[in-house]
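**Tokenised fold:**
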Amino acid sequence: MNLETLRTKLKHFTVFNINLIDVLKLLATIVFVIAVTFQIYKILTTKSVKDYSLYFILLQLIGTPEGGGAGITGYMTGNKELLIMGILGFIYYAIALYFKLTTNRNSKKQ
């Protein structure tokens, strides 16, 4: 079986009368939202992002698959799942950037 045949079969495969691709997109969105929610909670309670590089945060803030770039791509293509992940990823990295910049500034003053 070649790859094109497999892709064609998967496009028409359904789970509870819902296209498999739509099910996988929804599942990925749910898992991402849960994971990022826990990460945001951890950042807000510990007020620490010392393990993150500033460059990593900046690239993720504007990049894809999570962050501002994903939000823009999701909006432009009409992909609701990608839009949700992009907006939530952008919020997550914006919070991380805030704590990265304020933590570095406060530790240099002491």
